[in-house]
Amino acid sequence: MSDAGDIPGIPDGPGDPSDPTDAGGSAASDIGAQLERTNQLLRRMLAEVAKTPSTHAIFVDAGYVYAAAGLLVAGTEDRRSFDLDAEGLIEAFIDKARTIFADSRLLRVYWYDGARRRIHTSEQQSIAELPDVKVRLGNLNANNQQKGVDSLIRSDLESLARHRAISDAALIGGDEDLVSAVEAAQGYGARVHLWGIEAAEGRNQAEPLLWEVDSQRTFDLDFCKPYVTRRPVTMYEDSGPAPTRDDVRFVGAQIAATWLSSRGRAALAQLLPGHPYLPGPVDQDLLVEAERLLQRSLRGHADLRRALRDGFWQHLQSQY
Questions:
Q1: Is residue 252 a contact partner of residue 243, using CB atoms and an 8 Å limit?
Q2: Which residues span the domain enclosing 143?
């Protein structure tokens, strides 16, 4: 009679590789070990995340802030009519964020503005020198309208959210074009909080933007008032003989030459289709500069203002 070990199918002892039960147990043991190692890794990662503070950033559409704060406090959107204490206002935004995001650290403040040929003005340079502030510039067209600012905001918001550099974004603006920036950041898990400035009348933020954000906050007159100062209006004495139409026309041509040299032919090409009308900001600049050169007010002198515009247009058309 042969030994049991000689009978096919009966294992010789423990650990026999021919035993399917033993192979299954070994595989299960390996899987269990792998799961345990994975769980340990996850626990270490969660512990590291728990020790890492949340981070927030503030995104400021300067065009919106100037227009909304100027209208609320000084009664005008025209930047030339008031001074904005940008440094003080930025610090106030940082303090407000510190209160709202109490367990979070500030990454930086992004200040988006427009400039001719994206060349910093002296005011923008001083803002750029502030700690924790990054100035990003779009273009200004011939009508003093910002171009490219919304795309800059979207690019920064989306990039920071995608790389998990921020968990919360305070967005100060009102343009409907910012909706795509909000959606992009939210798609990567960031929360976007819309901050606005109280409107003198109605609303100054697009409804679709209000619908998309995670929270909303509005700064009132008392908050904004310390940072906006209306400039004194220069008064000219109407003493002596009034300038002739030819005098005023000549001044208009002088101003046109300066305007063309600073703005360039691209701005001229944008302006010409509107002849004989000038965009509001350009017309206002023309009037203010002419009054400065003539040392005389042209308000209430419709004929002289027409002569001024004629001189301005004649020079521009002669250079086209």
A1: no
A2: 54-230
Mark whether 170 and 308 lie in a shared domain: no
Structure confidence by residue, pLDDT tens digits, 20-34:
555 566 777 778 778
Same domain, 208 and 79: yes
- Token readout for 71 is 């209208």
Ranges of H-type helices in the chain: 20-51, 62-69, 86-100, 122-128, 149-162, 179-187, 207-212, 221-224, 245-263, 265-271, 280-294, 302-319
Comparing CA positions, the residue from 86, 96, 85 lying closest to residue 58 is 96
For 195-244, write each residue's pLDDT tens digit: 999 998 889 999 999 999 999 999 999 999 999 998 876 666 666 778 89
Q: List Cβ neighbours of 297 (8 Å cut-off, separation of 6 or more).
A: 235, 236, 238, 291
Question: How confident is the prediction for the chain on average, in pLDDT?
Answer: 85
Q: Which residue has the tokens 């008032």?
A: 225
Cβ-in-10-Å burial (0-12, 13-18, 19+) of 243 comes to buried
**Contact call for residues 224 and 205 (beta carbons, < 8 A):** no
| Residues 138 and 77 both lie in one domain | yes
Residues 67 and 138 in one domain: yes
- Residue pLDDT, tens place only, 44-76: 766 655 555 799 999 999 999 999 999 999 888
- Closest among 312, 295, 183 to 250, alpha carbons compared: 312
pLDDT, tens only, 69-78? 999 998 888 8
- Residue at 182 is within a domain: yes
- The CATH number that applies at residue 98 is 3.40.50.1010
97 and 201 assigned to the same domain: yes
Does residue 5 belong to any structural domain of this protein? no
- Contact of 174 with 197, CB cutoff 8 Å: no
